[in-house]
TrEMBL record:
This is DBR1 enzyme. Its cofactor is Zn(2+); Fe(2+); Mn(2+). It comes from Himantopus himantopus (Black-winged stilt). The gene is Dbr1. GO terms for cellular component: nucleus. Belongs to the lariat debranching enzyme family. Keywords: Hydrolase, Iron, Manganese, Metal-binding, mRNA processing, Nucleus, Zinc. It is found in: Nucleus. The keyword Hydrolase applies. Residues 416-428 have a biased composition (Polar residues). Residues 397-406, 432-443 have a biased composition (Acidic residues). One of its GO terms (molecular function) is metal ion binding. Residues 386-396, 486-506 have a biased composition (Basic and acidic residues). Residues 386-539 are annotated as: Disordered.
Length: 539
């Protein structure tokens, strides 16, 4: 089957789907599936814009709301993961995945689904070490910190994915797996992105969590985005025994969705011709979710996953064939994901702008139904319970403090808001400012539209096979050149200028309800999004 893969689309759905239609007409092909590797920006209204970690000048409605409202429908089944520039409040409604619009499916914090027998997995967000061991505690309205931490990868999602034993065909991450650049044309990459050199040579560019998953899952294909450059690599995995068949992963990073950018790739994937055309649950993944449900955490406290270190009674949460069979029996062997999309927020109306609307914490009926069906914890419901319990404890503590103060006079009433702005910065800590002399001239000659005589050829991107040990010794010498798509140059990253938002109570949606200072330059770039100052504006 024909699968199109896109990089960061930044909410420009009209442009993306129009390009797909053009490719289909020009090359006389029919696309079966579209995969998007993050920064999808499923923005429904003005409140969603306020929950997106981008500078105010980049907060534009774009075109997703037309697909959310039903004005338009995605012409091809679309499956996407989250990045670091998302309407986090919207995606948070679907921690286990779900439909954000008809024919557009979000994989959740982490997820695995099937389409025509092809097993597709992914993990949303980007890696940030100081949040990695925390639970999913954030909820809208976000403040300066949580608007960013909401999209940071957590160890529990990586732990769940590592319980999988069956082969994965396709895996998606937003940021690149660390070390993957050693398996492709590193020389060409550094020529086009010279400011990567320090991280590449120190082996700190990319996500160590994604690298861990790459070595464990060994998928046939791995797609990423985030760095706004096209790059291909081929990784031959080491085998653990003589009996194990050798495995290899074809890696491809896609550019962002802009005119004259090579942001789409069409590949041929072997599939099961007897399988239906519906998106399906993956039975092993559902069984893993059930097995790890007791590990769900919604606190800010750092915690570690169970491991074989003598401190945990159980550390292996992989599932048996019997557990997978039980899931199949629960579903009567019907794995089709229900088309149960529901509006949970009012849709943007260009004729009636609502600039002051505040985001609210919403429980999505899709998540409620999913959790009830499989006996899982509704993360958002748990967060709300924790907030309410914390509020009660806070009131009790205040009452005790007042009683203690009666004999000594009244205490100064604490402010509801932090009035000390000395520590606030307009710089997004996940982003960086690039050196002005970083060589950001545009060296691109690629067009988003392939030549009529030369349709896109994914296989041509992979010609260099290299085997390296897990404990890789990194050197500064150039990698062996491999055939690679021409890379593009880009530069200055985003900044966040959003102030803390007021708290609002959780909003539960029924199944049938329709919702109407100074800038310091930083050298590390492994969680950065690279884009030209003018061109990075999401179209």
């Amino acid at each position: 089957m024909k699968v199109a893969v896109a990089g960061c689309c930044h909410g420009a759905l009209d442009k993306m789907y129009e390009t797909l239609e053009l490719l289909q007409r020009r090359h006389n092909v029919r696309l079966d599936l579209l995969l998007c590797c993050g920064d999808f920006q499923a923005v429904r209204n003005e409140a969603d814009l306020r929950c997106m970690a981008v500078p105010a000048k980049y907060r534009h409605m774009q075109t997703f709301y037309r697909y959310y409202s039903g004005e338009k429908k995605a012409p091809v089944l679309t499956v996407f993961i989250g990045g670091n520039h998302e309407a986090s409040n919207h995606l948070q409604e679907l921690p286990y995945g779900g439909w954000v619009a008809p024919n557009i499916y979000y994989l959740g914090y982490a997820g695995v689904v099937r389409f025509r027998g092809v097993r597709i997995g992914g993990i949303s967000g980007i890696f940030k070490s100081h949040d990695y061991r925390k639970g999913h505690f954030e909820c809208p309205p976000y403040n300066q910190q949580t608007i960013r931490s909401a999209y940071h990868v957590r160890n529990i999602e990586v732990f769940k994915l590592k319980q999988l034993k069956r082969p994965i065909d396709i895996f998606m991450s937003h940021d690149w797996p660390r070390s993957i650049y050693h398996y492709g044309n590193k020389k060409q990459l550094l020529k086009m992105k010279s400011f990567f050199r320090q991280e590449v040579e120190s082996n700190t560019l990319g996500s160590p969590a994604a690298s861990e998953l790459l070595q464990h899952l060994k998928p046939t294909y791995w797609f990423s985005a985030h760095l706004h450059v096209k790059f291909a690599a081929f990784m031959q995995h080491q085998t653990n025994s003589k009996e194990e068949l050798p495995k290899a992963t074809k890696f491809l990073a896609l550019d962002k969705c802009l005119p004259h950018r090579d942001f789409l790739q069409i590949i041929d994937i072997e599939h099961d011709p007897s399988a239906g055309d519906s998106l399906e649950y993956d039975a092993e993944w559902i069984a893993v979710l059930k097995a790890t449900n007791s590990l769900v955490n919604v606190t800010q406290s750092s915690w570690s996953m169970p491991e074989n270190n003598g401190l945990h009674a159980k550390w292996d949460y992989s599932v048996t064939e019997e557990a997978i069979k039980e899931v199949l029996e629960e579903l009567n062997h019907n794995l089709k994901i229900p088309c149960n999309f529901t509006l949970t927020a009012a849709c943007y109306d260009p004729s009636k702008p609502q600039k002051q609307v505040e985001p609210v914490h919403t429980i999505n009926p899709q998540t409620t139904e999913f959790c009830a069906q499989f006996g899982l914890t509704d993360i958002n419901d748990r967060i709300q319970q924790a907030k309410e319990e914390g509020s009660v404890r806070g009131e009790r503590e205040e009452e005790e403090e007042e009683e203690d103060m009666d004999s000594t006079g009244s205490a100064e009433e604490p402010s509801e808001y932090n009035t000390d702005n000395s520590g606030l910065s307009s710089i997004n800590p996940d982003e960086i400012m690039l050196d002005e002399d970083g060589g950001d001239e545009d060296l691109s000659t690629c067009s988003v539209d392939p030549s009529p005589d030369h349709p896109p050829d994914f296989s041509a991107s992979f010609s260099d096979i290299r085997i390296m040990p897990d404990s890789m010794a990194v050197s500064s010498d150039d990698a062996t050149d491999s055939t690679n798509e021409e890379l593009e140059k880009s530069g200055v990253s985003d900044q966040v200028e959003e102030k803390s938002l007021n708290e609002r109570p959780l909003k539960r949606i029924g199944g049938n309800e329709n919702g109407n200072s100074g800038i310091k330059k930083i050298k590390r770039r492994n969680q950065a999004i690279y884009a030209a100052e003018d061109e990075d504006k999401p179209e």
